[in-house]
Amino acid sequence: MLRTYCDLARRDAALAVSGATDGQPRWIHLPIAEALRLSPDLELTRYCETLSHRGKRRIATTFHAIINVPGEPDRAWLACAECTTLMMDVADPASA
After folding, report:
1. Can you give the pLDDT at residue 88?
2. Are 28 and 65 in contact (CB under 8 A)?
3. Inter-residue contact 36 to 48 (CB < 8 Å)
4. Could you tell me if 43 and 4 are in contact, meaning their C-beta atoms sit under 8 angstroms apart?
5. Residue range of the domain that includes 69
6. Distance CA 64, CA 44 (A)
7. In whole angstroms, what separates CA 5 from the centre of its chain?
8. Is the dihedral of CA 15, 93, 45, 33 positive or negative?
9. Which of 7, 13, 81, 92 has the fewest beta carbons under 10 Å from its own?
10. Tens-digit pLDDT profile for residues 23-57
11. How many distinct structural domains can be found in the chain?
12. Rg, C-alpha atoms of the chain
């Protein structure tokens, strides 16, 4: 499944890293509906894949990917709204 996620992440990677020359990893996140619109044949699980909800069948709402090398995702996963909010709060403590 990760391979299909990575294929989608590659499509969005150019936007995520365009103009970035600092060598820092980029985190992209898209609503699942937008991810499916970008790649209609993509097979996504419908459940949150984070460690805290794995096996609990929480409905996923967001596609996430971390990209270190332009165009090459290192990790891709789906998360529910609660987990996405937690990730965003950790990534930007000023917004909490």
Report:
1. 87
2. yes
3. no
4. yes
5. 2-17+24-95
6. 12
7. 8
8. negative
9. 92
10. 777 888 889 888 888 777 777 788 999 998 888 88
11. 1
12. 13
DSSP type of residue 59: B
The set of residues, in sequence order, having a beta carbon less than 8 Å from that of 82 and lying 6+ positions away, is 53, 58
* pLDDT attached to residue 21: 55
User: Please, which residues have CB within 8 angstroms of residue 88's CB and are 6 or more apart in sequence?
Assistant: 29, 95
Give 82's pLDDT tier (boundaries 50, 70, 90): very high
pLDDT at residue 80, as a whole number: 94
Query: Is the pTM value of this prediction over 0.90?
Result: no
How far apart CA 61 and CA 72 sit, in angstroms, is: 23
Average pLDDT over residues 9-13: 54
Q: Side chain identity at 67, as an amino acid letter?
A: I
CA–CA distances in Å: residue 87 to residues 4, 23, 38, 77: 22, 21, 23, 12
64 and 76 Cβ atoms separated by less than 8 Å:
yes
Residue linked to tokens 């990790």: 75
